[in-house]
Write a structure and sequence with these properties.
single chain; 141 residues; alpha/beta; Gyrase A, domain 2; four-stranded mixed β-sheet; 8 strands; 35% strand; globular
């Protein structure tokens, strides 16, 4: 099961979210399968992690880019405590973009131990500039 770490980082443009995912190749294949399930069913799919944060994959037909954001169930934040307890990492894009992400994760699972960034995905595919950075670690068994 993937382990997801969330960090808030201060940058010149303000506070931003940053994620680190740790998992074995099979964990990244499970993530890719969840994307495939969302594409097949056209319904949101949820991937549990070892962390309090779960990953939700959904189709957004209008989105020409991959978009990710850390939110809560209702995407409503009446207090700083509500903001600090966000627990759903939403991943959305049109079917072609999600298929590209699925392929990227399958490819990542076949690599040796090491890490990659979601920006590697964005070299060939579009990733929203308003989305957080992801660091993806592939660990050995």
């Amino acid at each position: 099961m993937l382990r997801l770490e969330h960090r808030q980082m201060y940058r010149s443009n303000g506070l931003i979210d940053d994620f680190v995912l740790y998992g074995e190749p099979s964990d990244y294949l499970s993530f890719a399968k969840k994307i495939g399930a969302a594409l097949h069913s056209r319904e949101a799919e949820t991937l549990s992690t070892e962390s309090p944060i779960q990953i939700e994959i959904s189709i957004n037909e209008e989105s020409q880019v991959l978009w990710t954001a850390l939110e809560n169930e209702g995407n409503f934040y009446p207090s700083i405590d509500a903001w600090n307890t966000r627990d759903i990492l939403r991943v959305a894009g049109n079917p072609a973009v999600l298929e590209e992400l699925r392929g990227f994760l399958v490819d990542l699972s076949g690599r040796a131990r090491g890490y990659s960034y979601i920006s590697e995905f964005s070299q060939d595919s579009s990733y929203s500039v308003d989305s957080p950075e992801w660091r993806l670690h592939v660990q050995g068994p």
